[in-house]
Amino acid sequence: MAVPKRKMSRSNTRSRRANWKATPTALTTCPQCGSAAQPHIACPSCGTYKGRHYAVAERTEHQS
Amino acid sequence: MPTPTKGPRVGGGPAHERLILANLATSLFEHDSITTTEAKAKRLRPLAERLITFAKRGDLHARRRVMTVVRDKGVVHRLFAEIAPDMAVREGGYTRITKIGARKGDNAPMVVIELVREPLSAKKATVKEAEGATRRAAKQEEAKAAAAETKAAEDAEKVESSETTEAAAALPEGAVAANEDGSSPDEAYTVKGNADSGKYHEADGQWYDQTIAEFWFKSAEDAEKAGFTKAGASS
């Protein structure tokens, strides 16, 4: 079985991991209630999307 | 005919996928709208739409074909007797998938997949056509106004006094031209008019801050009189 010849240095490990970055979530404002919502996804605060209402999309403080 | 699926099956294998999709389709036809994950909904859509096409055909052979997937006779009856007549004039696109955000436990993207049972309105087509016509008309008007405005601006450099009369002639009724930076020339004029889109923005509007105004109106009524529509009203 192929195995690494050398132990990977702390520096190499860390420089590899330094490139793991989080990106901010894109947000728009809901035209119905004005709160922040992700684009193309039903609004989590009022549950509407394109004038239709989806009760299952609504999230409480605890769930989100 | 749906495109054959590539890649791994949903669930543990081909047979498991067939069972999952059959169960999802049964639930969908029973309840009209179900909540599931995005991956499953995307696999379910072609199957469900095909079954509805069979239901629209409505004969015994079609019913037997559907029975091979949806095992519940009651649900098949509902599909043929209630759902199929609603879909009679619709040419495909029988289902609608709406994303509702990720599930809490595993962050799986969840969706609502539902049958589109509202009648296909002929009104929609005419409304679309009319909107296009008004947009074209507004664009032509705008081009004229813009041409007049540039001319007015050129003239303004030479003779300051003639500019106001010329610009006023090119402007819609009840509007004043914006300053060069788009700000209001008069504090009484608080509604922004966007000549490019033919829309007006009130101070509390969503796009008010980002709009660069060509015209300013005293109130929303004035803007509407001048042929502008409220921003975001049509969506």
From TrEMBL, chain A:
Where composition is biased (Basic residues), the residues are 1-19
| Coiled coil segments of this chain | none
What are the boundaries of the signal sequence? Answer: none
Task: Cite the entry's keywords alphabetically.
Answer: Ribonucleoprotein, Ribosomal protein
**Origin superkingdom:** Bacteria
Which residue ranges are recorded for the region named Disordered? 1-21
In terms of InterPro entries, this protein maps to: Ribosomal_bL32, Ribosomal_bL32_bact, Ribosomal_zn-bd
An annotated Gene Ontology molecular function: structural constituent of ribosome
Q: Which Pfam families match?
A: Ribosomal_L32p (PF01783)
Example GO biological process: translation
NCBIfam families the UniProt entry points to: rpmF_bact
What the record says about family reads: Belongs to the bacterial ribosomal protein bL32 family.
Q: What is this protein called?
A: Large ribosomal subunit protein bL32
Species per Swiss-Prot/TrEMBL record: Humibacillus xanthopallidus
Supply the source organism's classification: Bacteria, Bacillati, Actinomycetota, Actinomycetes, Micrococcales
Automatic annotation (TrEMBL), chain B:
Report the record's Gene Ontology biological process terms: translation
Q: Which Pfam families match?
A: Ribosomal_L17 (PF01196)
Keywords attached to this entry: Ribonucleoprotein, Ribosomal protein
Output the Gene Ontology terms for molecular function: structural constituent of ribosome
Region annotated Disordered sits at 127-201
User: Which spans does this entry mark as compositional bias, Low complexity?
Assistant: 162-180
Kindly indicate whether the keyword Iron belongs to this entry: no
Record-level GO cellular component terms:
cytosolic large ribosomal subunit
Q: Where is the composition biased (Basic and acidic residues)?
A: 127-144, 151-161
What domain of life does the native source organism fall in?
Bacteria
UniProt xrefs under PANTHER family: LARGE RIBOSOMAL SUBUNIT PROTEIN BL17M, RIBOSOMAL PROTEIN L17
| Name of the protein in question | Large ribosomal subunit protein bL17
Organism from which the protein derives: Humibacillus xanthopallidus
